[in-house]
Description:
By secondary structure, the chain is mainly alpha-helical. It is built from 14 helices and no strands. It is flat and about 70 Å long.
Amino acid sequence: xxxxxxxxxxxxxxxxxxxxxxxxxxxxxxxxxxxxxxxxxxxxxxxxxxxxxxxxxxxxxxxxxxxxxxxxxxxxxxxxxxxxxxxxxxxxxxxxxxxxxxxxxxxxxxxxxxxxxxxxxxxxxxxxxxxxxxxxxxxxxxxxxxxxxxxxxxxxxxxxxxxxxxxxxxxxxxxxxxxxxxxxxxxxxxxxxxxxxxxxxxxxxxxxxxxxxxxxxxxxxxxxxxxxxxxxxxxxxxxxxxxxxxxxxxxxxxxxxxxxxxxxxxxxxxxxxxxxxxxxxxxxxxxxxxxxxxxxxxxxxxxxxxxxx
Length: 309
């Protein structure tokens, strides 16, 4: 008779060293995840609410451009059943000239200002950043001081100069100063960018026989694309929306830009066409959005490489 030999009983599994000794710790990770999820939801809800508050005036402007004049200020809601295109049709030609003429005038001023700022400010910035000349620091400090100078201080002298030159009523007072590096902010921005470039690049160009002009054109300008794009975008936005300068120097409707033409919809003596003004305002914002979307990448890169350093 054979006997069956029983196997020894298996030893109880040893406790895992990673197992928490406190049972409450098992439930802690889900609680943390739940708390983080709640904080994330609240944060996003707050940001969405703030975004709606910030963008609501723009949405109201767009919706109001499709409302009848009598409903614009009686119904401030963005929801309406009386949408119409009459404001766009009437507003396009209600200022004695097609609105395309004002868009063209603004485009001429903006293009001239951008070209002037890119050429003059980049040359002045290269001089301050790479050339050694007497009183360079003094001139640079004086240039920075003009940033804090209010425009109203120089308005009368500039008006007298432009009047003596016979430039009143033309685009020249709005374009020519841009070719003289009059915007010190852009000069400072480009100086910061050029100073951040490695000196070895300029030393290599000098060893190859490049002078300052060749070093500026073939070495500096290709590396300054973010700073140049930032200058172009800010010049576009500030010049397109400038109201004070064109109002002072321009006299006739045929040379008015968009910013001045929009004022013609509001008449203190008779009925104002707010619907037409809102409709044309929406159209005038389209070039700004397109310029910002096309240059957003360079704008962020230019500010990051010049403003922080």
